[in-house]
Specification:
The structure is a single chain. By secondary structure, the protein is α/β, with parallel strands linked by helices. It contains seven helices and eleven strands. The chain has one domain: Ribonuclease Z/Hydroxyacylglutathione hydrolase-like (Metallo-beta-lactamase, Chain A), CATH 3.60.15. Strands 1-2-3-4-5-6 form a six-stranded mixed β-sheet. A hairpin with a 4-residue loop joins strand 9 and strand 10. The longest helix has 24 residues.
């Protein structure tokens, strides 16, 4: 079977209201690695006066102010900021956003306010459960919004295309385990939609996670074949796999492809250094 993404993920994306509680303010940082830009999620219980903001995004003053102003326009203030992981396109603006909003920031590995798997976070009547989903990075987490049957995934599952396993911080074994964990949530009906870190919202979470799982299995098979075809014997097996498996990848995303290849070779137990 060849992995095919859900058709809905090809839609144009500019943010906006997605569920009763979730609204995306799209950051103005589109690019090959960020797709339409970083999705800053504003989560607000209907009628509440405190919101949760997930991933303030880059250190762009106009964007950060737009998020604060959006919350204020809905009669609320920011009560808590969360980070799905520490990459700059998600977290660089967090210090300035804390100044603008006056809200605390919580993330993995950020001090006494660390968040951990299974933590339940409550702000303004809104309830989120922390779901550890490492692999893209070691600190990657997702947030389950049970009231909307939604999962905020950061870069673990995107709204379009597939994510990079950002070796050496990212690790493929952990990433595959995280996909299985999300698949279990979709299978139980706890999660029916995904609010990703980039790209459009995913209305069929189960279909997207299935696409990701099949894609990873197919890619690993392609890497195994490339190694058998001679990449393993080359001076740099990473480049050997790159030219055989990722030949269609544009030059501006080849550094990301190399990170994923290193993670794949580590997963397969193939020396590449």
């Amino acid at each position: 079977m060849t992995a095919q993404p859900p058709a809905s993920t090809r839609d144009a994306w500019s943010g906006g209201a997605v569920t009763e509680r979730a609204h995306c303010v799209l950051a103005p940082n589109p690019g090959p690695m960020t797709l339409d830009g970083t999705n800053t999620w504003v989560l607000l219980e209907p009628g509440a006066d405190e919101a949760v903001v997930v991933d303030p995004g880059p250190d762009d003053e106009a964007h950060l102010l737009a998020v604060v102003e959006h919350v204020a326009a809905r009669g609320a203030r920011v009560g808590l900021t969360l980070l799905t992981h520490g990459h700059h396109d998600h977290a660089e603006g967090a210090p300035r956003f804390a100044e603008l909003s006056g809200a605390p920031t919580r993330a993995v590995g950020r001090g006494h306010d660390d968040i951990r798997d299974g933590d339940v976070l409550r702000t303004g009547g809104l309830e989120l459960r922390v779901v550890a989903t490492p692999g893209h990075t070691a600190d990657s987490v997702s947030f389950a919004l049970a009231a909307d049957h939604a999962l905020v995934t950061g870069d673990t599952v995107l709204g379009r295309g597939t994510t990079v396993v950002a070796h050496p911080d990212g690790e493929l074994d952990a990433y595959l385990d995280s996909l299985e964990r999300i698949a279990a949530l979709t299978g139980d009906g706890d999660v029916t939609r995904i609010l990703p870190g980039h790209g459009p919202r995913v209305p069929d979470a189960a279909a997207m996670v299935d696409f990701y799982r099949v894609h990873r299995a197919e890619r690993l098979d392609q890497v195994r074949q490339a190694l058998a075809d001679g990449a393993a014997a080359e001076a740099d097996p990473v480049e050997g796999v790159l030219t055989r498996v990722y030949a269609e990848v544009s030059p501006d995303v080849r550094p990301a492809a190399r990170m994923s290849i290193r993670a794949q070779l580590d997963h397969l137990g193939v020396a590449w250094r």
